[in-house]
Write a structure and sequence with these properties.
By secondary structure, this protein is mainly α. It has helices at 8-17, 20-30, 42-55, 77-84, 90-102, 108-120, 125-141, 150-162, 168-191, 201-213, 217-231, 236-248, 254-261, 284-299.
């Protein structure tokens, strides 16, 4: 075996810990042989994972699952049956819980997907349950009315695995943050007067970005008003450019933006839709234009 595949320091730490399970799990996953440890009980696998994390040896290189489901092992019908056979099998209990929440019996192919989350991704059963609930609840909150497919749930599982969301505490924190983010996105959608339709992916991306920037409703209304005044309608790229500029300048309140607009000596912007306002100082360019007009009138 090429020693370049292994982190020598990580191997030494594992050997010093004296855990054969951790050593086998590390070796198999480093070499892409995750199916070798499918015979591990949940308790053995969890303990080996815990020790590897503690030793800083769980992930020798890049995220394990970033390439997606095409890289996972091919599970056979026998693999699934072997996990379902023991009466007290954690996987068997997981299947029952997932089926109850999805409201249907899983097909053999869907069971293989679920098995990959459990064995290949190494997510604990309670985390997988939280994942399934999250995916179903998210679909309902968006008004789709459809139960997500196991393929969609699997894609979310890969994101969780790569982000290290592998405990109930981390899952709960992630779900809470997502719920807050989606709630804010719905508020912004209502503020923009969008009702009775589902947002496009592009619109949703804009709104989530603005939510992440932390602008108040008042600032968003100001940007919306400027957009409509200058373009005649809600033009997403135009409004985004306004908010992007304010965010880059660290302007997060209407007061800060107004103070910036009133900055002494700031030149007037020339362009379509710009007019001289009462009490506003003339720019040098406009003073020259007025002087030329007066001179022309005198010559006439």
């Amino acid at each position: 075996m090429d020693q370049g595949f292994l982190d020598v320091q990580a191997v030494r730490r594992i050997l010093a810990a004296g855990s054969g399970d951790a050593a086998l799990l590390y070796l198999c996953r480093t070499c892409g042989l995750s199916d070798v440890v499918t015979g591990f009980s949940e308790a053995r696998l969890t303990e080996a994972e815990r020790l590897l994390r503690q030793l800083g040896a769980q992930q020798p290189d890049a995220p394990r699952y970033l390439k997606g489901a095409d890289e996972r092992p091919e599970y056979s019908d026998y693999d699934v049956a072997a996990q379902l056979e023991p009466p007290q099998s954690p996987f068997r209990r997981l299947v029952g819980e997932v089926q109850r929440y999805l409201g249907k019996a899983l097909s053999t192919e869907e069971l293989k997907i679920l098995l990959s989350m459990y064995q290949y991704l190494g997510l604990p059963t309670e985390v997988i349950n939280m994942l399934v609930h999250y995916c179903v609840d998210r679909g309902r909150s968006r008004g789709s009315g459809r139960t997500p497919s196991m393929r969609n749930i699997e894609r979310e599982a890969y994101r969780w695995a790569d982000a290290g969301i592998d405990t109930m505490e981390r899952a709960a924190a992630f779900i809470q943050s997502q719920l807050h983010r989606e709630s804010r996105s719905r508020q912004i959608t209502e503020l923009l007067g969008i009702q009775g339709r589902v947002l496009t992916q592009g619109e949703e991306k804009y709104i989530q970005t603005w939510a992440d920037w932390g602008f108040t409703d008042e600032v968003l209304r100001l940007a919306y008003d400027k957009t409509c005044m200058n373009t005649g309608a809600l033009k997403w790229p135009y409004m985004h450019s306004i908010l992007k500029s304010w965010n880059a300048q660290g302007l997060t309140t209407v007061e800060q933006i107004s103070a910036r607009d009133r900055k002494p000596g700031a030149p007037l912007k020339a362009g379509k839709g710009d007019f001289q306002r009462h009490g506003q100082a003339l720019s040098p360019m406009m003073k020259q234009a007025v002087a030329r007009m007066m001179q022309d009138e005198q010559e006439d």
